[in-house]
């Protein structure tokens, strides 16, 4: 409970579970990432990913980047601001989680990717 209180007091934006899952996928799994691929990995529609990306993009946590080889393709990319957010989140929440739980969760993320 203390970890959640620290996070609430940190002043960081409140992200939905979908937004946080999207952040974790992009930052913890190898890219490149596309809206289609992220939607598939999370088992949701492309519009759901697009809405989450709009919010995360406005916060500066993720950005869209055109594929130089094929301008029709758009990749979802990490940002320094997004990395700072996740680092802060880990500092606030991390101490409450055991290393074993974190390894298990990371394994689940990679398993579904």
UniProtKB/TrEMBL annotation:
**Pfam families, sorted:** MarR_2
Q: List, alphabetically, the SMART domains matched.
A: HTH_MARR (SM00347)
Q: Which residues form the HTH marR-type domain?
A: 1-113
Tell me the domain of life. Answer: Bacteria
User: InterPro entries, from UniProt?
Assistant: HTH_MarR-typ (IPR000835), MarR/SlyA-like (IPR039422), WH-like_DNA-bd_sf (IPR036388), WH_DNA-bd_sf (IPR036390)
Region (Disordered), start-end ranges: 93-113
GO BP annotations, alphabetical order? response to stress
**Name of the protein described by the UniProt record:** Winged helix-turn-helix transcriptional regulator
């Amino acid at each position: 409970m203390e970890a959640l209180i620290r996070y609430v007091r940190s002043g960081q934006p409140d992200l939905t579970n979908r937004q946080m899952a999207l952040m974790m996928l992009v930052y913890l799994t190898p890219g490149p990432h596309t809206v289609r691929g992220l939607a598939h990995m999370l088992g949701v529609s492309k519009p759901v990913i697009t809405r989450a990306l709009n919010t995360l993009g406005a916060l500066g946590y993720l950005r869209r980047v055109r594929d130089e080889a094929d301008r029709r393709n758009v990749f979802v990319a990490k940002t320094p601001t997004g990395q700072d957010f996740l680092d802060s989140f880990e500092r606030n929440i991390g101490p409450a989680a055991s290393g074993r739980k974190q390894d298990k969760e990371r394994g689940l993320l990679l398993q579904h990717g």
